[in-house]
Specification:
Two copies of one chain form a homodimer. In chain A, a hairpin with a 2-residue loop joins strand 6 and strand 7. In chain A, the strands form four sheets. Chain A has a seven-stranded mixed β-sheet, sandwiched between helices. Chain A has a six-stranded parallel β-sheet with strand order 2-1-3-4-8-5, sandwiched between helices. Chain A has a four-stranded parallel β-sheet with strand order 10-9-12-13. Chain A is globular. The first copy, chain A, is built from 22 helices and 19 strands. Chain A is an alpha/beta fold. Chain A has three domains: 168 residues, Thiamin diphosphate (ThDP)-binding fold, Pyr/PP domains (Rossmann fold), CATH 3.40.50.970; 133 residues, Rossmann fold (3-Layer(aba) Sandwich); 175 residues, Thiamin diphosphate (ThDP)-binding fold, Pyr/PP domains (Rossmann fold), CATH 3.40.50. At the A-B interface, helix 2, helix 4, helix 5, helix 6 and helix 8 of A face helix 2, helix 4, helix 5, helix 6 and helix 8 of B.
Chain lengths: 520, 520
């Protein structure tokens, strides 16, 4: 198509394609109709529809984590962006790169009080690292290229939001642009490597090597970290939540810092230094009366071997070299044993470890039930484990959509609490439309179980029915098999370990979406 | 309970109760556990659980529209507030009063980078007229009373958001407070009344009396407006969307300004003045190439008889007095006739008009299908008609929850597009838990039909499958009967007018929630 004849929307579609953005998760409205029309006329990103904006933004997060490239989202005005806000929060904490395209009112229309007038820039600013509103059709292409560039933060990603007033989309004079190539991540800091080597060597078990980002995110980096710990005697931990953590047979099995504050304090007790390899300082999820926010012992020092933006695997390699470490062979692990009987946490873990296919991607939003799974997963087939990073539930099902599209051909297992799955259950429909190989396992404990624990954690006590009702999902019990069917996804209810194993095997074998409701 | 021994959360619960807030729609998290616990210990608002925050905020909007008093919402941190944002936008445009209580991190915790750290104040500011974060437990009661007061904007409501850091909730030294009594709405402006009387008298059919807020919202005000139009010959219209509009037999039937820009321009063509009775200046929903944003003819003057904040019915009474108008008897209307055959728009309208119970509350988020219903509803039993006011779809099902709780004993009919219902379908569960008398009628056209029209409206053309897929809800078709069952609500699919009539009758007779999927 002749570049002179593009409208703004067409120039943006062309720019995104030229800049390596090949996927667009969309929930469009009127102000995005020119962008939608342009998708038909210009070779551009593949477009996947979500029936709610939280599906769109959560999918973009999952997609980035598996593909390493930003997806575009297409959202409708301030309220549409608002609906996608929680998963943009999560994506920001996961350091995922996303280009949000948010249609807005035409510039001349925005000065009037119309029903959908909103402060989209303010909403965008609360979760974006970069926000721009295009001023004219001629600017849209360059703005789109700038948005793609703004998603890059060294080795990790960021959230960029481009507001597209409708008249800049439909206006003539669009000029396609192209983002610059992605620059290399900041180099390893040799001084930091030397400092970390000294601390680990001298403190041994009184030092903790804490992995995050590229440290926990690479099997090779994990392997190096295990060898460093073996050589120096330091303690080795990963963050509690990790954006993407390889695991399973033939890979190291690295303990994660516990979620519960008391348990985390115990794991770090006696440490005099924490060496951070891609992890920020460990901080409690929430504050509790008379408990610290900082999980490290008072007075313990913090050493940053590498920030998340840096090449963390390279920094660990440099650290291993400085310590003259050689890789240690991993202990072989017993094969998982088929569980039988009730759906206990151990049996659920064993069923997953037994049935997980090679190279599966596990999306972990199992909340309370999910916490107990880690130990068993070392015996599972090699896989990647993705956790919700910002603590805002409703990420899991959309994240599974994005992970499946970001890693074509790999099976996906989405672990969901029944409470968390409800926030964005519309993602099931996108799984059905795109026939994604996602097995959804819902842990139906029929409660906000985490809150029943948190209520005790903050020192409050539950004395009556009114509060109990706020934490229970009974009356009525959700029927997940019907919810799945309503979205076009086959479902099955299981109440024993044997049935769970069979349902998981059947689900993975189908290479299509299915939902398993495990009644706990 | 001894006031000296309250914690901050308890002081807030006591303050809300003392200030007339008797309903709390909640989706709590960890940071709200003390508030939840306080609800058990202190006589306070009734608490209704929503499984997604958009349900909570939309319900608060519906509740205000029927009860005239603000509900509280209980939301979890910035992401939870984000999930409720779109329906807060709608509530703001509806001029509904809501007190959002948003738990936030403890003050000492907020300086650290924890997963759920977010800029809740920025998110709140984008949709709230008033935002405050409590500084200490001792302030929480007074802040809560100030929040209730901040929901009042003369005769209408506003959005107030109180951020409650967790330590201000659990901290000792809470002091309950009480909001001041609601002040009277600003008085009628006698000069405005005289000016409006002169204009209507002199211009007759070249003037338009446009009703909004309390003008369209009161049957008595409508009746006065009809008499004024009869006397002066002026044109009489209501806004396209109205927060609450009485209708049905024994009431005036007032045409609404059309949604489509061309049709609206035609209705206002030739007008030299618009007299605004609770309505703002009419503005198009969206801008379109080569169409105006302002719907009034260029050069036509705008006269504000009464702003939405004023006592609009009193202003219309004063106008009627100034014009020496007497109420005119309403024409009697033919009883609705039972429709037979296909589910055409006319047959759907007739089925609703025929079966709607006395004093029903109709929630209209029928989008394209809903637009054709108005003409037939004059023959229905007396009812109130509530429309989504901010244009952000996903308001209807939550609004129905709130309306049912705000008008106990009155039957509710929720009209939904299949596209719009998907945004907040979790509201079905709250209907089931509270056993609300809501009949949900889903118009299953299996498309974003409005967008198929809007695409033409902006001058874009649909040339290929890629864009068509973004506007279609086929592949797979949603199964609304299963979706309802999954949430604990019985459902039925109908494909004929006769079946629709029977399903509506059965649904209203059940005095419990049900869902009807009308396949179009």
């Amino acid at each position: 198509m002749d570049n002179d004849k593009l409208n703004g929307a067409e120039s943006l579609v062309q720019t995104l394609a030229a800049s390596g953005v090949t996927m667009c998760f969309a929930n469009p409205g009127t102000s995005e109709m020119h962008f939608v029309a342009a998708l038909d006329r210009i070779a551009g990103p593949r477009c996947v529809l979500g029936l709610f904006e939280g599906v769109v933004t959560g999918a973009a997060d999952g997609y980035y984590r598996m593909s390493g490239t930003p997806a575009a989202t297409l959202l409708h005005l301030g309220p549409g962006l608002g609906n996608g806000l929680a998963n943009l929060h999560n994506a920001g904490k996961a350091r995922s790169g996303i280009v949000n395209i948010v249609g807005d009112h035409a510039l001349a229309h925005a000065r009037f009080e119309s029903p959908l007038k909103s402060d989209a820039a303010a909403i965008a600013g609360s979760v974006s690292h970069w926000v721009r509103s295009s001023a004219s059709a001629a600017d849209v292409g360059a703005d789109g290229a700038a948005a793609v560039q703004a998603t890059r933060d060294g080795a990790v990603g960021r959230i960029a939001t481009l507001l597209l007033p409708a008249d800049t989309a439909w206006g003539a004079g669009g000029r396609a642009a192209v983002a610059t190539p992605r620059p290399a991540a900041p180099a390893v800091d040799a001084d930091a490597v030397q400092a970390a080597a000294r601390v680990l060597h001298h403190l041994g078990p009184r030092a903790v090597l804490l992995l995050g980002a590229g440290g926990s995110g690479s099997a090779q980096a994990q392997h190096l970290a295990v060898a460093i710990a073996a050589k120096t005697g330091c303690r080795l931990l990963a963050e509690f939540y990790n954006a993407r953590m390889p695991g399973g047979r033939g890979r190291p099995q690295i303990d994660r810092l516990p979620y519960m504050v008391d348990a985390a304090l115990a794991r770090l007790a006696g440490a005099e230094a924490l060496v951070l390899a891609g992890a920020p300082e460990p901080i409690g999820f929430f504050a509790y009366p008379d408990k610290p926010s900082q999980l490290k012992p008072p007075g313990a020092s913090l050493l940053t071997l590498a920030a998340p933006q840096q090449d963390v695997p390279a920094a660990l390699q440099a650290l291993a070299d400085a310590l003259d470490v050689t890789l240690v062979p991993l202990a072989s692990r017993a094969a998982p044993v088929a569980p039988a009987g009730a759906l206990t946490p151990d049996h659920i873990a064993a069923a997953i470890a037994l049935t997980l296919p090679e190279q599966a991607v596990v999306i972990d939003e199992g909340v309370t039930t999910g916490r107990g799974l880690a130990a068993a997963m070392g015996a599972a087939a090699p896989h990647d484990w993705l956790a919700v990073m910002g603590g805002a539930i409703g990420w899991g099902l959309p994240g599974a959509v994005g992970a499946a599209l970001g890693a074509p051909g790999r099976p996906v297992l989405a672990l969901e609490g029944d409470g968390s799955a409800m926030y964005t259950l519309q993602a099931l429909w996108t799984m059905a439309r795109e026939q994604l190989p996602v097995v959804v396992l819902v842990f139906a404990n029929r409660a906000y179980r985490i809150l029943q624990g948190e209520l005790l954690g903050v020192g409050a006590t539950l004395s009556g029915q009114k509060a109990a009702d706020m934490l229970s999902l009974e009356r009525p019990a959700l029927d997940w098999v019907s919810l799945a069917r309503g979205h076009g996804v086959p479902g099955i209810r299981v109440e024993s370990a044997e049935a769970l194993v069979k349902a998981l095997r059947d689900g993975f074998a189908s290479h299509a979406p299915c939902l398993i409701e495990a009644v706990l």
